[in-house]
Amino acid sequence: MKINFEEMRSPEIGEFIKNNGMVIVPIGACEVHGRHLPVITDTKMAYSASIDAARKMEGKIPVSVLPAVWFGYSVAILKNWPGTITIRPKVLIDLLYNICQSLIDMGVDKILIVNGHGNNPGVIDVVVRSIGDDFKVFCGMTNIFDCWDREYVRQNRKSKPGGIGHACEIETS
């Protein structure tokens, strides 16, 4: 099976669904990340983590990764710098809801949303709860910044406590 959902043909997706496959939906943001990082950093991190997770699951369960949702909700202050594209929370809720609904409509009942952006969790929580209520499909959700190896970070960080966050040494490295 192909890991990248968009590379599968319709019959392959049908087989993937028959085999009880899980779809990962990565989401990030397009926003300023200081002068040193591209504005797509959060999205790239969520997508890379999703692909890595899918590869680790190969041979265990079928897993496919959707193309990343490359924009998210960003707070207004980030509009002060060029590069930030923000989506109103209700629009982002509708977008993610429709993506999940489309997957459910085709027969997918295992969905994991992988978030790489600090302002998205509240929006994603509403989507996950609404999908569960409406379809009895209970999507998983994780934030990549909750998955960091804390001991590795503690041993290898260069910044003082409090120095890891937006456009920080973790996002940079």
pLDDT average, as an integer? 89
- Uncertain segments of ≥5 residues (pLDDT<50)? none
Determine the fraction of residues in helical runs and give it as a percent range: 25-40%
Distance between the termini: 31 Å
User: Any idea what the shape is?
Assistant: globular
Proportion of residues in β-strands: 5-15%
* Helix and strand sequence: HEHEHEHEHH
Secondary-structure-based class equals alpha/beta
Number of separate helices: 6
Output the radius of gyration.
17 Å
Task: State the total count of DSSP E strands.
Answer: 4
The largest beta-sheet arranges its strands as 2-1-3-4
Work out the oligomeric state of the chains in this entry.
Answer: single chain
Which sheet architecture does the biggest sheet show?
4 strands, parallel
Quick recap:
The protein contains six helices and four strands.
Task: Give short descriptive properties of this protein.
40% helix; 6 helices; 173 residues; globular; four-stranded parallel β-sheet; single chain; alpha/beta
